[in-house]
Specification:
single chain, 327 residues, mainly alpha, Ferritin, 12 helices
C-alpha cells in the first residue's frame, strides 16, 4: 500500500510533451554518465580493462547528452525543464552507487547491462511517441546506441564468467519471471502478512472472540489485496521499466496480499480461542520465514538483511497488535 504514496504526484510517461521527453533524456544521460565514472574509478586498480570500458561508456553518455541539449536548444530554446526519473510514473530507477559496489565486479557489469537495456527501451518508446522528424531520428539513433552498450557490457561479463547463448537466454527469461511475478508477489505477500498482523491480533486479544477476529481478518486481507492490486496496476504500465503486463502484476500482487493476511485469519474459524491463536502464531512464523527465503532466493537479498527486514519487522507489528488488544 505504500507504493500508492510513493507514486503520488508522478507524471504518466504518455503525458510528457516532446520538450519534457528531451529534458528527461538529458537528465538521465547525465546521471548514467556519473554512475559509469564511479564504476570506472572503483574498478581501475583491479579490473583496468573493465574500467576503461566504463570510461568510454561515460564519454558516450556525455556525447549523447550534448546531442540532446543541442536538439533542445534548436527546437525549444535555452531553458531546459527540470524533470528527472523520479518525476515519471513507472520510469526505471537507478541504484545508488554504494548499493552496487559491495557486490563486486560481476554485479557492476550486470547492473550496467540492465541500465543500458532500460535506456534502450526508453528511447524506443519515446521515439514512437514523438511526431517531430528530427527528435524522432535522434531518439531512434540513441536507442540503437544503447542497444550496442548492452552488448558491450554483456561481452565484458562473459569474458569474466563465460556463458553460452542458451544460458544467457535462460537468465533473461528468469529475470522477466522475477519482474512480472516474483517481485510483485513478494511485495503483496509482505504487505498482506505484515500489515494485517496488528488488526487481527489486536482484535483477537481485545475480544477473545474467534468469529469476530476471523471477520476482521477477512476484511483486512481482502481490502489490502484489492488496494495493492489496483496500486500495482496504476503505478507502472511496464512500457519503460520492462516489468511486464500491469494486469498480470496487479493480479499477482492482489492475490498474494490477500493470501498473506488470510493465512493467519483462517485459524480463527476454530472456536477455541487459544487453539486458534496458537495456530495463527505458528502460521505467522512460517509466513515471515517464507518471505525471507523468497527474498534470498529470487531477489538475492543476503540472509541477514532479509531476516532483519521481514522477521524482526513482522515481530514488532505482531507485538504492537497484542499490546494494543491486550491493553
Amino acid at each position: 500500500m505504500l507504493s500508492s504514496f510513493i507514486n503520488r504526484g508522478r507524471r504518466p510517461f504518455d503525458s510528457l510533451t516532446e520538450q519534457e521527453i528531451l529534458a528527461l533524456a538529458i537528465s538521465s544521460e547525465e546521471d548514467d554518465g556519473r554512475i559509469y565514472q564511479s564504476y570506472a574509478r572503483w574498478l581501475r586498480d583491479d579490473y583496468p580493462d573493465t574500467a576503461k570500458m566504463f570510461d568510454e561508456m561515460a564519454e558516450e553518455e556525455a556525447q549523447h547528452r550534448d546531442w540532446l541539449i543541442e536538439l533542445h536548444r534548436e527546437k525549444f530554446g535555452e531553458t531546459i525543464p527540470l524533470i528527472r526519473r523520479e518525476h515519471v510514473k513507472g520510469f526505471y530507477d537507478r541504484k545508488p552507487d554504494w548499493l552496487v559496489k559491495p557486490y563486486g565486479v560481476d554485479e557492476v557489469r550486470r547492473q550496467a547491462a540492465e541500465m543500458e537495456e532500460q535506456a534502450c527501451r526508453f528511447y524506443a518508446a519515446a521515439a514512437r511517441k514523438t511526431s517531430d522528424a528530427g527528435i524522432r531520428k535522434l531518439l531512434g539513433d540513441l536507442a540503437r546506441a544503447e542497444a550496442g552498450h548492452i552488448g558491450t557490457a554483456m561481452h565484458a561479463q562473459k569474458e569474466h564468467v563465460p556463458q553460452s547463448v542458451e544460458e544467457a537466454e535462460r537468465a533473461a527469461e528468469h529475470r522477466n519471471f522475477v519482474l512480472t511475478y516474483v517481485q510483485p508477489g513478494l511485495a503483496g505477500l509482505m504487505d498482506g502478512s505484515v500489515s494485517t498482523l496488528a488488526p487481527i491480533f489486536a482484535t483477537a486479544f481485545a475480544t477473545e472472540n474467534t468469529w469476530t477476529t476471523f471477520l476482521v481478518g477477512i476484511a483486512a486481507s481482502v481490502g489490502a489485496g484489492i488496494s495493492m492490486g489496483f496500486t500495482e496496476v496504476a503505478s507502472d504500465d511496464g512500457v519503460i521499466s520492462g516489468r511486464g503486463s500491469p494486469i498480470k502484476r496487479g493480479l499477482t500482487t492482489g492475490i498474494m496480499t490477500a493470501l498473506g493476511g488470510l493465512g493467519h485469519a483462517l485459524p480463527y474459524l476454530i472456536p477455541h480461542f487459544w487453539t486458534a491463536t496458537s495456530i495463527a502464531m505458528v502460521v505467522v512464523f512460517v509466513e515471515l520465514w517464507a518471505i525471507a527465503f523468497i527474498q534470498n532466493r529470487y531477489m538475492e537479498t543476503p540472509w541477514g538483511k532479509a531476516i532483519f527486514q521481514v522477521v524482526l519487522g513482522g515481530a514488532l507489528v505482531f507485538a504492537a497488535g497484542v499490546a494494543i488488544g491486550g491493553g
